Amino acid sequence: MMTAPVREEVENTLLPCSFRGVQFYWEGGSIVGGRKATEGPIVVSDEQIISDVGLRQRAYSIRGLIAVRTQVGEGGESTVAQTYADHRRTLLAALESSEPATFVHPIEGTVTGLVARSWSLDETFSELGIGRIGIEFIRDTTRPTPVVEIGAADLVAETAETARSTALAEFASKWNVDPSIVGAYEEGLAKTRDAFAAVQRSADEAQTVASEINGFASAISTATADAARLIQTPLVLANALAGVFDSLRSIYPTAAAAFDALALGFGYGGLDALPDSDSPSSIARRQNVEAMNAAMNILFLSNAYEAASGLSFLTLDEIDRVDAVLGEQHDALLDVVDAETVDALEELRAAFSDLLSAARLTAYRLTRENVSPTTPRALAFVLYGSDELAPTLAALNGRYSYELLDGETTVLSS
User: Fold this and answer.
1) Residues 241, 242, 246, 252: is their CA dihedral positive or negative?
2) pLDDT in tens for each of the 414 residues of the chain?
3) Which residue among 14, 43, 294, 352 has the highest number of C-beta atoms inside a 10 angstrom radius?
4) Where are the alpha helices (DSSP H) in 361-397?
5) Which pairs count as long-range contacts for 349-357, CB under 8 Å and 24+ apart, including other chains?
6) Which of 23, 143, 27, 129 is nearest to 84 (CA)?
7) How far is CA 70 from CA 53, 79, 125, 214, 314, in A?
8) The pTM is what?
9) CA 186, CA 282: separation in Å to the nearest integer?
């Protein structure tokens, strides 16, 4: 039988269980694997021939819970963070999607290319608000994951989701505010509240959708008020971080507004003063700060990649600017996260690079031309056959649409 200290150590290494980015509570499960082997008889012999025809792909049987999620405020009041019906609907939709997706197993980690072959949900009147779900996952090896048939922006979204799940799993494996670590709880609480404040700043710095801002404000204020409880369980804290970013994404009216606001979060924690002692408590506290910084930066980056995939690029300069901003943040993270998270980030970067390659085929170059005095509208007709780009020509040259362009002028060239 496992002793209490050993059990606690194992529990602290468990990752947040999720499928297609939707987390749920893990109770247990089993894995089936092995080799694909065929048996052949040998005539007039007691022996047989075993032919190995390859690896049998693992199948995962998972037992989990769908449950109403509550959180307790500083005043002791209990509020519902996610209703049972919402959790149920979101998870079942993820399970019934036809495309292979990423499953984060609490012990094994990230497993790609899985589909839910079947699931069963048991609900009883005596346990309202709790659903016991059994899921059979199998791997689709006939096509890569993400699926190549989906659009470039969808591929960016899929790989961004994988990067977030992987990064949060790494975060949960490193976060530790055990009372035995001097100062860890107090510093962890302050750091968590600072992280939520950084998300709030990204909302404050952009135009927002009025109908969505109240939902975000409620989510971020509840998470901040509940930080003292959240930090004590790494999986719960990881889920809360993911939740506030999910809410944040809904408040931006345009992809450009979302990208600009999310990019403000790049480099989060870069000015933190880390404990410089080699004592066990200093090492643990430093690890907490570094884990939170890495997780937050990846959450900002992955969401910014998704926002950038929705941009309409007119010029190559615009493409290069966005690519440079994302690339700098991406490269800065590769040395501070584990290999599995690095792989997820590289897949996200590759998916976005493919999207930009396609965008470059239709984007204009900025060039300089000498023109006789003319209006932006007249010049647009001459160069492009319509006046659609007249406002752009005026803006590129610091003119109003009714002002004349004369001499060396910035124009769009294919």
Assistant:
1) positive
2) 555 666 666 777 788 888 888 888 889 999 988 876 656 555 445 666 565 556 677 889 999 988 776 665 556 565 666 688 888 888 898 898 877 888 888 888 888 888 898 999 999 888 888 899 999 998 876 544 333 334 788 889 999 999 999 999 999 999 999 988 988 999 999 999 999 999 999 888 766 665 677 888 888 888 899 999 999 999 999 999 998 998 888 888 888 888 999 999 999 998 777 767 788 888 888 999 999 999 999 999 999 999 999 888 888 888 999 999 999 999 999 999 999 999 999 999 999 999 988 888 777 777 788 888 888 888 877 777 777 778 877 887 888 777 888 888 877 776
3) 352
4) 376-384, 390-396
5) 350/159, 351/146, 351/152, 351/155, 351/156, 351/158, 351/159, 352/156, 352/305, 352/308, 352/309, 352/326, 353/323, 354/152, 354/155, 355/152, 355/153, 355/155, 355/156, 355/309, 356/319, 356/323
6) 129
7) 50, 5, 20, 19, 46
8) 0.59
9) 13
Which structure tokens are listed for 334?
A: 């590769």
**Structure token pair of residue 281:** 């408590």
